[in-house]
Amino acid sequence: MRLIFFLLIATLGLYSCNNDLTTIGQDLINNGNHIEVQTTLLKETGTIKIDSFITSSGRYGSAITEMFMGRYKDQYSGVTTASPCFQIVPVSQPSINFRYLLDSVTFHFKVGKNIWGDTTETATPQTLSLYRLARLPEFRTDQNDYFYNRDSIPWGDKLATVSFIPKRMIMNQVYFKLEKDTLTERMFAMMQNDDPIFRPNSNSEISYYKFINYFKGLAIQSGKDNNCLLSLEMIPDSLYMRFHYHNADQKYTYDLKLLSQRNEYQYFNVKNIPSEKYGFEALTEQTKEVKFTEHDMAIVQGLSGYMVKMVLPEPDVQSTYKTVVKAEIEIKPRVWASPEVAYPSTISVYYTNKINEIKGVAYNSTNNPITGRYVKTENNEEDRYIFDITDYYQTISRYSDSKDVRQLLLTIPNLTSSFNRMIIKDVPVLRVYYASYKD
Fold first, then answer.
1. What angle do CA 407, 408, 414 make, to 5 degrees?
2. What share of the chain is helix, strand, coil (3-state, %, to 5)?
3. Which one, of 308, 323, 314, 333, lies nearest residue 383 by Cα?
4. Under a CB-based contact definition with an 8 Å cutoff, are residues 316 and 82 in contact?
5. SS3 category, 210
6. Do the bridges between strand 126-133 and strand 371-375 make them parallel or antiparallel, or are there none, so unpaired?
7. According to the lineage, what is the superkingdom (predicted)?
8. Is the pLDDT of residue 11 over 50?
9. CA 202 vs CA 207, 239, 253, 258: distances in Å
10. Is 52 exposed, middle or buried (0-12, 13-18, 19+ CB in 10 A)?
């Protein structure tokens, strides 16, 4: 059961258009007619963990502009580690005279806008290691040429290590310094000798495919004591290997930059070791669920794969003269004054089944997917997410006897590109407003 990327923009789902009953119901509210409000605790709420999700653009998809690296640990989601894998290529055919001497080789990267973890003045230094790939990643036809978060990285030789405090000003100046060893000396000599791997190939979809086939690629691994997840900008000017060399008093550089022509070999690996404090170690398969009532907690979080499942009660509309005029879900999250992991501003909703498959986006009406909206208050304890499910619940009450449409999955909108999370502290509440009327 894989989370297919296009589900995030799928147009499947239940929906209903505005209708007379809703309008009548709203008029009844305004006119002071009989309105019944039923409040239900959604005790059938729990945490699940999806098996896997796509972390690459695929053979023909748009280029990934951001990947992730690092490690984060806490009592809620456990330990999450991320490692990016990518390729670099020549930007032009080098022309380096034999008299020129190699000074050093550096690898430069730029941390993106998102950082999760401790970034205070007393933060733990973060350590990253740069590796050369042992081989090119292998495509699997059963995965439609995508790579997933669980796909391993073919680690080769370690090239360099760097440590830094995770402060923006410091990170803007951090880079790897490679040793002048057999690899770098050989590559520099190949540049001077006009080796074929540095010549563009017009017969290939990738101009410098010979170089990729030789060098394979790079990956970045987090230190075991790190406690930050960092985004990594995936653009050529932000990710490159630089050769520094000189002739007499003249200094020169030559760059190998991130491959931008084709991106199918670029992906990131994400691993999560669940927290045992809240029983999440039991989530060994997507079909498993840890009920909210077991530990008074449920969690939604990107990258780590956690989602919240809840089951709605059947609408109470047996009477011919009773209709749903409003329905909403209220969720109260845990809130901190200075959170290390940010809260999502909205929560996405899918409908599911008893084995927790993602069946489709839950819609209120055409092109209007259900979302949970974060409501900030003066008292953090009263902050909440509100989900307007009026049209969706009306549709259930009129046309559907399937339990599947009453089973929902909650996740952050950008599940594969954000570590943001919502931790539920109280049992979610469903409020349904029913209008009763006569002929």
1. 160
2. 15, 40, 45
3. 333
4. no
5. helix
6. unpaired
7. Bacteria
8. no
9. 6, 24, 26, 19
10. middle
Residue ranges per structural domain of the chain: 2-51+285-436, 57-272
Q: Could you tell me the pLDDT band of residue 297, with boundaries at 50, 70 and 90?
A: very high
Q: Which residues pair with 398 in a beta bridge?
A: none
| 3-class DSSP string for 139-188 | CCHHHCCCCECCCCCCEEEEEEEEEECCCHHHHCCCEEEECCCHHHHHHH
* pLDDT at position 41 over 50: yes
Q: Which two tokens stand for residue 230?
A: 């960092």
The runs of H, that is alpha helices, within 276-331 are 292-295
What is the CATH code for 2-51+285-436?
Answer: 2.60.120
pLDDT at 60: 66
As a whole number of angstroms, the distance between CA 180 and CA 243 comes to: 10
Dihedral sign for Cα atoms in the order 392, 287, 402, 10: positive
Token reading at 394: 């009306």
Strands (E), 321-412: 322-331, 346-351, 360-361, 363-365, 368-369, 371-375, 384-388, 407-411
For residue range 380-438, what is the model confidence (pLDDT) as tens digits? 889 999 999 999 998 888 776 667 789 999 999 989 999 999 999 999 999 999 988 76
Residues written for the chain: 439
CA distance 373 to 185: 56
Cα 371 to Cα 350: distance, rounded to the nearest angstrom: 10
